[in-house]
Each structure stands twice: as C-alpha cells, then as structure tokens.
Automatic annotation (TrEMBL):
Residues 17-111 form the Aspartate/glutamate/uridylate kinase domain. The lineage of its organism: Bacteria, Candidatus Kaiseribacteriota. Pfam families: AA_kinase (PF00696). It comes from Candidatus Kaiserbacteria bacterium RIFCSPHIGHO2_01_FULL_46_22. This is Aspartate/glutamate/uridylate kinase domain-containing protein. It comes from the Bacteria. InterPro entries: AceGlu_kinase-like_sf, Asp/Glu/Uridylate_kinase.
Length: 134
C-alpha cells in the first residue's frame, strides 16, 4: 500500500499489484496512479470509485445515459472536460487521461464497493466495469 508516491522507489520490482491512495489535498489520485504506473513501467491502472461504469453522460442528470464497458481514450476524452479542477466530478481526471493515453496505459474503472469485480478483473474474468485504452 503506497500512501506517499516517494515510497514507490522502495517497492520491490517483482510486485504484481500496488495499491495507492491519495497523498496531498489538491492533487488528483488519478494522476498519482498514472505517475506511479509510468515510474514502474506498468501498463494498467485500476481506478476504484463509486460507480459501476463510465456512462455516456452523468446518469444522475441524464436518464438516457448508458453504461460503457469498453472505450478508447479518444472517445472517453470527448465525454469529460479538458482540464482538472479539485472537486471535479469525472470518472477519471482529464489530465491523467491524456498522460495515460500518451503512455499507452489502460485504465479500468470498477466500483470499489464491490471488490468481487476487482477480483474478477485481476483474474481475467468478465467483470462489471469500464476499460479505457488506446
């Protein structure tokens, strides 16, 4: 479990799963996750949040919003704002999304209240969530 990004430097290279948490107020945990992935050469990030899927629109506002199981970075970035702002309500930080796309990092969004779905994802099974990739 990483709570300070500097601790990643002390993590053994054979570790398969790293869990990281927020570090400082005012910075995006999504960006920190992408930065850690870049630092260790990982090509996947799992974003545990309070949603089951990324949707075509905010389902709290738009009743026609539909869940997305698989989406490219290009299409995903059309759904979110261009800039990150503390308190932004977006499935993934837009700046972190650009970084992940540039480094060819896949991001999977899974509801953190349902860790069975994380287990399925980690075991290459069908899961409830959204994959965002190149």
């Amino acid at each position: 479990m990483i709570t300070n990004p500097d601790e990643i430097l002390d993590t053994p290279r054979d570790i398969k799963v790293i869990i990281a948490a927020g570090y400082r107020p005012g910075s995006s945990t999504d960006m920190r996750a992408v930065q850690i992935a870049k630092l260790i050469g990982a090509n996947k990030v799992v974003n545990l949040s309070n949603i089951d899927y990324v949707y075509t629109a905010d389902p709290k506002i738009d009743s026609t919003a539909t869940p997305i199981k698989d989406i490219t970075w290009t299409e995903f970035r059309k759904l979110i704002p261009d800039e990150w702002d503390p308190g932004l309500s977006s499935p993934f930080d837009p700046v972190a999304a650009r970084e992940a796309e540039a480094k060819n990092i896949e991001v999977t969004c899974i509801n953190g209240d349902n860790l069975v779905e994380l287990h399925k994802y980690l075991n290459n099974e069908s899961f409830t969530g959204t994959k965002i990739h190149a």
